[in-house]
Amino acid sequence: MIFADASALIAIITGEPEADTLADVLQSDPLRRCSALSVWETVTGLNFSYGSPLADAREQVQRFLDAGTFGFVPIGETEYALALDARARFGKGRHPAGLNMGDCFAYACAKANRAKLLYKGSDFAKTDLA
User: Fold this and answer.
1) pLDDT in tens, 84-108
2) Three-class secondary structure of residue 35 per DSSP
3) Cβ–Cβ contacts within 10 Å for residue 43, how many?
4) What distance lies between CA 28 and its chain's CA centroid?
5) How confident is the model at residue 33 (pLDDT cuts 50, 70, 90)?
6) pTM for the whole thing?
7) Strands of 71-72's sheet in order across
8) Torsion (CA) 70, 26, 19, 82 in degrees, nearest 10
């Protein structure tokens, strides 16, 4: 199973330089997962950073998720606790990984579901998920 962070979803959808590599990793695992929070971050990231109207970004992301047969993982008490632990251990201002709220929940979703985490950048490589 692979859990896609918003950074990876945005990179693939927008064709950033890492897109092909990230897409290859995504294609290597038929169990693709995301969360409501990672999808929210993806839609709002496309809206804010790329200027896509919110409705267009939402539709574009939904088409991508449908084509990739993504499933959603729930965010419940376990993910909440793991996200707080991630904040304490790897949070911005506390650790070189500098995880923000969305990152902490991506970490938690991957950890709770024993999934590989697909992401762009190097922050998560500084955690125990690497």
Assistant:
1) 999 999 998 888 888 999 999 999 9
2) coil
3) 23
4) 17
5) very high
6) 0.94
7) 71-72, 32-34, 2-4, 116-118
8) 70
Where does 2-121 sit in CATH, by number? 3.40.50.1010
Helical spans, DSSP H, in the chain:
6-14, 19-27, 36-50, 54-67, 77-90, 101-112
Q: Which residue's entry shows tokens 């897109």?
A: 19
Reading the block at residue 46, the tokens are 């496309």
Locate the domains of the chain by residue range.
Answer: 2-121
Contact in structure between 22 and 118 (CB atoms under 8 Å): yes
Strands 116-118 and 71-72: unpaired
Query: Residues of 10-34 as b/e, b for ≥16 C-beta within 10 angstroms?
Result: bbbbeeeeebeebbeebeeeeebbb
Amino acid sitting at position 84 = L
